[in-house]
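pasting DUF3558 domain-containing protein for the record, 198 residues
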Amino acid sequence: MSRVVACVLVVFVAACAPSPAPPPATTSASASASTSASKPKPTPTAPAFTPAASPEKVSAACPFLSGEEITKTIAGADTYSGKEQPGPKGRGLSAFRCAYSTGSYPDNTVITLDISVTPRRLPAAVITKTLEGECDTPATPLPGVGEAAWFCPPGQAKVLVTTARTSHGETRVAQLRFIMTTHTEVYSALAKLVADRL
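structre below
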């Protein structure tokens, strides 16, 4: 046979051969079982934030309060995130700062947390009383928060919340500054979170 005829026969035989059987139909239960078996199960992830639990040495402010905790406590529409910044200078203290912004205004700091550490044990109440001078209006105590805590009520550009605690042989002071006002319960809850970790 010539080559042309052989090629035509091969094509003809292939065209006349029965088509392969379709794959067996699956029930929805077996289909979902095979689908779920083929998809890897998501592994649980560890929380993104582990709060500082009264560390031996303070080296940053952001570990004391997460943006997620602020978001949950304020319970507003915005989400908060924190970024470590250079701490305030002066007063002979070690100082650290975390600046928090929102998803709506990522380039604007709306809350700051300053952690100051004095290397000797001073009564927290004495330190916070001294810092009350930063208020434009009389300070409002926040009972049950740290060894001493208060906030400056609205009436100035920023609301200032201060708490202090003696820990690891030194006095640690935390100050939260808000550019917005909110409920006293929010100031108290955030101050308590930080104070318990100082």
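Residues 50 and 166 are 22 Å apart (CA to CA).
Residues 1-23, 25-37, 40-47 have pLDDT under 50 and may be disordered.
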